[in-house]
Amino acid sequence: MPAEMVHLVRHGEVTNPDRILYGRLDGFGLTARGHQMAETVAGYFADRSISAVLASPLLRAQQTATPIAAAHGLDIITDDRLIEGTNIFEGTRVSAKAIMRNPSVWPKLWNPFRPSWGESYKSIVHRMMAAVGDAVDNHGGEVVVVSHQLPIWMVHRHVNGESLVHSPKARRCTLCSVTSFQPEQEPTPGPGQGSTKTSGVDSRHWREVAYIEPAASLLADAVDLGAV
């Protein structure tokens, strides 16, 4: 039986004292509050029929997935397709002033719609939807997928038929938030029931059914910097 629901979970707060864009750099684990967030989101799933927990290979995602998997007696399935997007500014502190002072990066900024400074939005959608589709086909019940802000946001925009081009400041994807989707076996085109803007991703239609912030009480003092 295919899974009936997929929950995309963003990782918790990350230890990042230098406030760099950490991107795909490994070794950036959760803060104490980040671990608390992970325990909180695990509690949110405690009474649900979770059949599998998948996660990006990066440490922050693995640590967020750990209490969720443990609560259901599951091992974490690591899927490289759930990883953060690439970005040429990875490992640096990013600001408009810093970019203006570094002419060597200017040729990479020519196309903000792709974007030209990192992995394309379409590429992220293709790999994420492939991973989510496989998760549905290979597991029953409900599946938890722990990933990163931009990949989750790309799935949201694709499923809802929205342009992939966006402002990072407008992303609705807080630390340890849960965005839930259901696959629809019978195509039912319409608002919120699958995108035709990015073809060749997955043959079925998807519907976004919920967005929840289980760790909302921990967000006020949390530092959310470093995402691509």
**SSE pattern, N- to C-terminal:** EHEHEHHEHEE
The number of helices is 5
Helix % is 25-40%
Q: What is the first-to-last residue Cα distance?
A: 35 Å
Instruction: Please tell me how large the radius of gyration is.
Output: 17 Å
Mean pLDDT: 90
Molecular structure report:
The protein has about 230 residues and is of the alpha/beta class. Helix content is about 25%, strand content about 15%. It has 5 helices and 6 strands; from the N terminus they run E-H-E-H-E-H-H-E-H-E-E. The chain has helices at about 30-45, 60-70, 95-100, 120-140, 150-160; strands at about 5-10, 50-55, 75-80, 140-145, 180-185, 205-210. It has a 6-stranded mixed beta sheet, sandwiched between helices. Helix 2 (about 60-70) links the parallel strand 2 and strand 3 (about 75-80). The longest helix is centred in the middle third of the chain and has 18 residues, at about 120-140. The protein is globular, with a radius of gyration of 17 Å. The chain starts with a strand and ends in a 16-residue tail after the last strand.
Q: Topology, please?
A:
Layout: E1 5-10, H1 32-44, E2 50-55, H2 59-71, E3 76-78, H3 96-100, H4 121-138, E4 142-147, H5 149-159, E5 178-184, E6 205-212
Helix pairs in contact: 1-2, 4-5
Core attributes:
228 residues, alpha/beta, 6-stranded mixed beta sheet, 5 helices, 6 strands, 16% strand, globular
Short characterization:
This protein is 26% helix and 16% strand. It is of the alpha/beta class and 228 residues long. Helix 1 (32-44) runs parallel beside helix 2 (59-71) and helix 4 (121-138) crosses helix 5 (149-159).
